[in-house]
Amino acid sequence: MSVKLTLKALRANNNMTQPQLAEKIGVSVSTVQSWENKGVQPRADQIVRLLNLFHVNFEDVIFF
Question: In angstroms, rounded to a whole number, what is the distance separating the alpha carbons of residues 3 and 22?
Fold first, then answer.
């Protein structure tokens, strides 16, 4: 069984702030906050950008 990483954990493990993440993938800070704090799911295109940024596979991540 593999360990699932949350978006917040990925960001923290990469020493990245919410504003830095937002800038890197082209969304607002409030969008990142809604993903991390409210359980809002990223759109498919945003998921692809997140996976590429963090060099992880979809199966390794939960987005809330």
Answer: 25
The tens digit of pLDDT for each residue in 8-34 reads 899 999 999 999 999 999 999 999 999
For residue 18, give the amino acid letter. Answer: Q
> Which residues fall within 8 angstroms of residue 22, CB to CB, at 6 or more apart?
28, 29, 31, 32
Asked if residue 41 lies in contact with residue 64, where contact means CB atoms within 8 angstroms, the answer is yes
The CA-based angle 22-35-4, given to 5 degrees, is: 105
Helix 44-54 vs helix 18-25: crossing angle, to nearest 10: 110
Rounded mean pLDDT, 45-51: 93
